[in-house]
Amino acid sequence: MGVLTLLVNQTPGLAHGKGLYSNEAEAQQRAAEIGCTSVHKNNGRWMPCADERELHQQMRKQ
Predict the structure, then answer these.
(1) Phi and psi dihedrals of 50, rounded to 5?
(2) pTM of the prediction?
(3) Pairing mode, strands 39-42 and 45-48
(4) Is residue 5 a part of any domain in this protein?
């Protein structure tokens, strides 16, 4: 396992960026993949799930 992998797995802020999408359709597609039925906006970008709490719950199931 590389150092970068360890940093990403231990630093929630780095992983957070992977859930940001430039448009609603991309976020909706990812939401469906992880088991969410809606999306939400965060700082002008789109994220899967109704909110970040639901997103993190679904990601932990992966």
Answers:
(1) -65, -35
(2) 0.70
(3) antiparallel
(4) no
Where are the alpha helices (H) located in the chain, listed in sequence order? 3-10, 12-16, 24-34, 52-61
Q: How many domains does the chain have?
A: 1
Q: Would you give per-residue pLDDT tens digits along the chain (62 residues)? A: 443 333 334 334 434 566 899 999 999 999 999 999 999 999 999 999 999 999 999 999 98
Contact 54, 30 (CB under 8 A): no
Q: Which pLDDT score, from 0 to 100, does residue 9 have? A: 41
Bridge partners of 39? 48
Integer Cα distance of 18 and 20 in angstroms = 6
State the Cα–Cα distance between residues 11 and 2, nearest whole angstrom: 14
> Is residue 29 a part of any domain in this protein?
yes
